[in-house]
Amino acid sequence: MSALVSKSTPWPARIALAAGLLALAGCNRKNVAERMLGDPAHELAAARCGGAGQMLRPLIIEWPATDRASLESRLRRGLVVVRYEGCVVEVLRECAAPAGSYDYLGITRKSDQITIRTTDELYANMPLTAVTLEAKLATAGELNVSMALVGNYEAARARFDISELQGRCEGATHVVAAAQVGAFAFYTGAAAEVGTELEVEKVAGVGARSTASREILNHDGDADACLGSTPTDTTPPAECGALLRLELSALDGIVPTCQPGSVWNGSACVTNQRAASEAQQARDQAKATKRAENQEIAWQLCGIQMQCEAQRAGVLPPEGDAYQRQMRACTAMTSVMINDYTRPQARKCIADAPSIGCAAFETCVMGPDSDADADADPDFGEPDEFGEPDHGFGTEPDW
């Protein structure tokens, strides 16, 4: 043992000093596109659409024909990167993901009918253009979509990190992972103003002729052409490849742009005050966890040393209140010496103790001498993880 320890030194002080000598030698693109500020209507609509693109399977049947045609051609050239924020999906034509393409997979033909009667249903089903359709819904009382689905275009790989993108990708948030295709008609309900009469079963094969006058808001594809589809098709039937719905996959590695006065906390934009409070709580919790672990390690070290002291003296260790008092005193002194440098060695000594005996245990705990520790530890004397001076295990603290 060190010359600082003698046989007359009480054993709690000895284990504290021994623990104090335990040490190890050496220590040795941009963000999401800027939010459209200053437009209250957009901000309100964006909130109803799910903020920063939380709905990942939006219908696009209400898109203008020119936009739908452009997207169809882009899907044929390779993976499509988009900015999806609030109620807006923007195809980034000059941004490219690593080499990849879409494969067509046919399915058993299906028909689907969506009826929209409330603004909540409108935003849930058509978030991308809901803000422009609210007036039409209010006038018509009901909006309907009849669809025939025959297959999907699917990307072989749908997860990308934003750092992998190439080109002008400012504001990129998602890639198009898949797209449903077929034929559809989008039209007003019976309460709508008189418009073009529509035979609903002609659109998607739903099986009943409509006698009401309906205004067709948009349509694409031919339901009759879809009747020839099979699950083994490698391409959709001619005139039955209209885009119906997109499936979007969020890019990894994005730190969203938050409003002034707020920051991203890993899952949402929060106020600076809340972020500071959350960060402080996390630091306090980490410190509390380390303190609890240090207390447990110190208690185990002291328990082993108590057994060794009793064995050396040829007596049994104390019990009851005497045991608790000595353990508390030893633990209080020893836990101060346990930190990020000494904790791993302390765990090793505890794990090895049953097989190495008391002498080897004390050697394990002692570690290098204090001078070597001070030379090896670049943070010697600096505050430790709890803001206290880092004595290391090799210098007796000033109690």
Automatic annotation (TrEMBL):
Where in the sequence does UniProt note compositional bias of the Acidic residues kind? 370-387
**Region described as Disordered:** 369-399
Protein name as catalogued: Lipoprotein
Source organism:
Enhygromyxa salina
